[in-house]
Design brief:
binds pantoate; six-stranded parallel β-sheet; about 35% helix; Rossmann fold; about 300 residues
């Protein structure tokens, strides 16, 4: 049995740029002759699971070179204990990536990313970043956007190559903010959203699921159940009757609902119509967050797509 090779690990921005230039200058990938070469970039914080694998596989299908970054970004953590307990497991991550086609892993140190300590100039996620997850985790999205901006700068290939960046639909508010940043600040990157990967029972994969007991994992299924209820109604063009879905979640044991809203997918503003009594038409996004035990979980469902 031959094991798939581990991706090459680079630690500095300079090494990353040199390695991607070399790979992009190589022979065209099979079946892609004549196409403009492109780089698929998957930013992560490690602790990889099948949700990340889906991002990497999507990048592999569409690009000549695939780079995964692994960096636990201190700027996007509020509580120091959350940052400390965030899993760091590079060896395991590399094993997982070996089978799914990543060419390079960019795993910089904190000093490489923030050589002068916490940056003086950061991005502000504005009104879109202050609600929902931003309200629960003040500063989180400013820190997230700041590191994504930096990663997109160091990960970008030379101008004659395409640049696609892959993010999970699971973190819907993060995705909306990154799309907005790329438009507002003219980043030369195409943002590709990859559907949420779930367990067979429906729980959205997350690196936080490891902190749930088996009983809590069962309890957490009510989140996806409630989203499925709304999705079914949207598909049948019925009123969404959000209140009944909220009641389903609030009646579940061990589950402490934070928010459950149906919003515009781009602005995350609550919908003026379509939500409760009128038949559903158009497109919307259902967002939910709850604490199960001490673990905060988020999930969402695009409606009407
Ligand atoms: O979704 C994540 O893992 C992180 O927020 C990201 C986008 C890699 C930025 O640190």
């Amino acid at each position: 049995m031959t094991l798939p090779p581990l991706p090459r690990v680079v630690r500095t921005a300079g090494e990353l740029m040199a390695a991607t230039a070399e790979l992009l200058g190589g022979p065209p990938a099979q079946g892609r002759e004549g196409e403009r070469p492109s780089l698929g970039f998957v930013p992560t914080m490690g602790a990889l699971h099948e949700g990340h694998v889906a991002l990497v596989r999507a990048a592999r299908r569409a690009n000549q070179v695939v780079v995964v970054s692994i960096f636990v970004n201190p700027l996007q953590f509020g509580e120091p204990t959350d940052l400390q307990r965030y899993p760091r497991q590079l060896e395991q991550d590399l094993d997982l990536l070996a089978g799914c086609g990543a060419d390079l892993v960019f795993a910089p140190s904190e000093h490489e990313m923030y050589p002068d300590g916490p940056p003086l100039v950061t991005l502000n996620s504005g009104a879109l970043g202050n609600k929902f997850e931003g309200a629960a985790r003040p500063g989180h999205f400013d820190g997230m956007l700041t590191v994504v901006a930096k990663l997109l700068h160091v990960g970008a290939p030379a101008a004659d190559a395409g640049f696609r960046c892959y993010f999970g639909q699971k973190d819907a508010q993060q995705l909306a903010l990154i799309r907005r940043m790329v438009r507002d600040l003219n980043f030369p990157a195409d943002i590709v959203a990859v559907p949420t990967v779930r367990t067979g029972a429906g729980l959205a994969l997350s690196s936080r699921n490891r902190f749930l007991t088996a009983e809590q994992q069962d309890a957490a299924l009510v989140l996806s159940r409630a989203l499925r209820l709304l999705d079914g109604r949207a598909q049948r063009h019925e009123p969404l009757d959000l209140d009944s879905a909220v009641a389903l979640v609030t009646s579940a044991r061990q589950v402490n609902l934070d928010y459950f809203e149906v919003v515009d997918p781009g602005t995350l503003e609550p919908l003026a119509v379509n939500c409760r009594e009128t038949p559903f038409t158009g497109e919307a996004l259902a967002l939910i967050a709850a604490r199960v035990g001490s673990v905060r979980l988020i999930d969402n469902a695009p409606l009407g797509y």
